[in-house]
Every structure is written in C-alpha cells, then in structure tokens.
Amino acid sequence: GAVVSQHPSRVICKSGTSVKIECRSLDFQATTMFWYRQFPKKSLMLMATSNEGSKATYEQGVEKDKFLINHASLTLSTLTVTSAHPEDSSFYICSAGPGQRSSPLHFGNGTRLTVT
Amino acid sequence: AQKITQTQPGMFVQEKEAVTLDCTYDTSDPSYGLFWYKQPSSGEMIFLIYQGSYDQQNATEGRYSLNFQKARKSANLVISASQLGDSAMYFCAMREGEWGNKLVFGAGTILRVKS
After folding, report:
1. How far is CA B17 from the centre of its chain?
2. Which chain B residues touch A42 with a CB distance below 8 Å?
3. Is the peptide bond before B40 cis (omega within 30 degrees of 0)?
C-alpha cells in the first residue's frame, strides 16, 4: 500500500536554531502534501499545503516565515522550523495521498520536536 | 464553524463488546468523503475506513463499520468485538470536493478497552 515516510521521528534543538523535517511519498507521486501540528491529546491542525513546484498555501494564523515549506519534487516535501522557540515544541505530522477519490491520506509517523 | 464534531472526549468499552464512536459533520458540498483514523500512543495515524457521500451502502472493513446517516450528517464508527489493542485516539475527518486531498479533523475520542 501507499507509504509516507517522515524523518526524523524525534529531534531536540536549542532555542534559536532551525530544524528541518522531511516527508517522502515512497510509492506514489504527490503534487500536494500536507503538514499538520498536534498538541498532546488534541486534534490535528492543518498548518499548510505543500505544492510541488510552487509556493505553499498556509492556513490562517500560521507564520510562513517561521515554518518554511519546500516541495521540490513529486516525492519530497520539507518543513523547516526557523529560529525555533520552546513554544514551537510539538508533534508535526505530514500526509499525502495518490489523489484518487476514495483513497485515504497516508500519514508519516510524525516528528516530535522539543525546543530547549 | 466546526465542520467535524466528535462529542465524546473519552469512551470505555469492555473487551469483546461493540462500541460506537460518534461523528457529525457540516458541509454544503454535495461531494465529500468521510474517514476514520486511529492514533495509538506511538503517534502514527492509521486509516480505518472511508465513506463517500454518494455511496449507497455503509462502509465496512473487518471489525469496523461506518453508520452513515446522510440526512442527519452523521458518520459514526462501530467497532465490533473490541480488543485491548483498540485502545487509542480515534479521529473522524472529512474531505470536501471530489478530488481534494485536504482533511479536516474532529477533536477525537479516546477509547479505552477494559479486560
């Protein structure tokens, strides 16, 4: 079945540094990928839609200069958290799908970011 | 406005019994898809079942079935013969439009299966 790979699964960084998270679709091409953020015991909140070959579409309230998204190929999207602060600590998870009507979105295993 | 509503923050069920997790949705788009995902404590999102707005029959996948009541805009998940491994967070989600991939999630329901 369709698989989405996300890396790293865990990262700890210091305040002020940047962190890059990768999301790859392993057996299908994805013109769009989605980045979600999840707080403990809460729902997934869509941050942005990553568009291959063009700018990402950010949801209202998401700082595009803080969360840089690049979708350089049909199988790879990256999320870079720039100048990270402790309040950026969270669980980030990406998703993508083959684009067929009844196909589910497949999710990466998520990245737990801790900013110290 | 909330598009997906899950009114049960937490549920308990006895092992081997059936449980229903509620989900209501709101959309004016005639074409949409409804999904249920399971999220264990490890954090991965596991796809369980899908129901399309034009599907005539309720979806079933093994022990999972979806009670789709279109007029009431509800899409409840029924898990039969609960197992200890079913303990997890469950999310209902909706995709609007025929081909769009963006999902909107409900708040989730934490299910605990008791032995």
Report:
1. 18
2. 107-108
3. no
Smallest CA-to-CA distance from B74 within B22, B15, B32, B27 is with B22
Residue A55 tokens read as 């700018």
Question: Which residues of chain A neighbour B89 with C-beta distances below 8 Å?
Answer: 41
A69 touches chain B (CB under 8 A): no
Radius of gyration for chain B, computed over Cα atoms and rounded to the nearest angstrom:
14
Q: What is the full per-residue pLDDT of chain B (115 aa) written as tens digits?
A: 569 999 999 999 999 999 999 999 999 988 899 999 999 999 999 999 999 999 999 999 999 999 999 999 999 999 999 999 999 999 999 987 656 668 899 999 999 999 9
A1, A32, A38, B62, B111 from B65: Cα distances, Å: 21, 29, 27, 8, 16
